[in-house]
Design goal:
- The chain is built from 14 helices and 14 strands.
- The strands form 3 sheets. The protein has a 7-stranded mixed β-sheet, with helices on both faces. Strands 1-2-3-12 form a 4-stranded mixed β-sheet. Strands 11-14-13 form a 3-stranded antiparallel β-sheet.
- The relative contact order is 0.16.
Amino acid sequence: MRFREQIGEALAELEGLGLLRRPRRVSGPQGPEIEVDGRRVLCFCSNNYLGLADHPELARAARGEDGFGAAASRLITGSMDAHHETEEALAAFVRAPTAALFANGYAANVGSVQALVGAGDQVFSDALNHASLIDGCRLSRAQVHVYRHRDLDHLEQLLRQHATEAGRALIVTDSLFSMDGVFAPIEALAELAHQHGAGLMIDEAHSLGVFGPEGSGVCAAMGVVPDALVGTLGKSFGGAGAFVAGSHEIVSVIRNQARSYVFSTAPPPPVVRAAGRAIDLVRAASEERAALLAHSARLREELNQLGFEVPPGTSQIIPILIGDKARAMRLSASLFDRGVFVQGIRPPTVAPGTSRLRLTPMASHSDDHLDRALAAFAALAPTG
């Protein structure tokens, strides 16, 4: 059988399993209301938590004098003023000595894990970590030990068994899990890392900008200083890119051994300049953070009252558990027909039998937006 026919069969199999994805087309800027496939809808599935993606200050900051492209990797000619200045600002923001910019969060996680551990080392990963952390663990060639989600007893058992083996030991986790909206036990993880001589790498992708002093993240809120802290610039910061912050030694190893850093063209200077400006906007966004979390609390409460299964939580990520993947996608489509865009999440993003809607408000949503969204959910509420 020829290659193209085999690919066609693979696509047909995905279609038959109800797992074939087709991205919708968004026209115009991101915001609380967007045009999707030619229709104006309320957007409740974005990571634009603080509503900065269409902020005019970021657009102005991008129109600098550095040109458009970086032209090479950071270790050749691509390490420009914009990169150095923004890295210094990001490091100060998360209270770390230094930081290294990456093109995106996936590259930051894959590259950093692969740089920090390798063959002969041990890495301990939460079962519900983001795919980029999982892939980084696999590609590192270290021995991977997956501990049950947020299960400290299981992690401690694995550390006792394996952390004393030759080589380095590294614990990796999200601080705020992107599909469940719950937090990792950061303080306890730091204590376990200390007890067993392990490193600690925390991905603050979904918590940075929303939690902590001036939005500086869960680690800062808890007084925890991980060996490597990953942050993304495409969510609360409204732009694109990511960074890894830590000690000069940790970041230097990453700059020298993270393949996604060494062998990638540096992020474009306009994007980096906008990220630098976004830091100031995030710091000053105390009212936006309060509004975002107030919206989240209201949605959780009223959706539960309507009969939807929404687990307890305090973050801006609200999972509405459905179970069956086909039912989740039908509910997503029905909401879209009513003018509310909430994406259905199904395997392999989540485990089989746990398909859901992932509802995420923005600080820029109004009370009227929430009223309209809840009215759409009320029309589709479970019966009996």
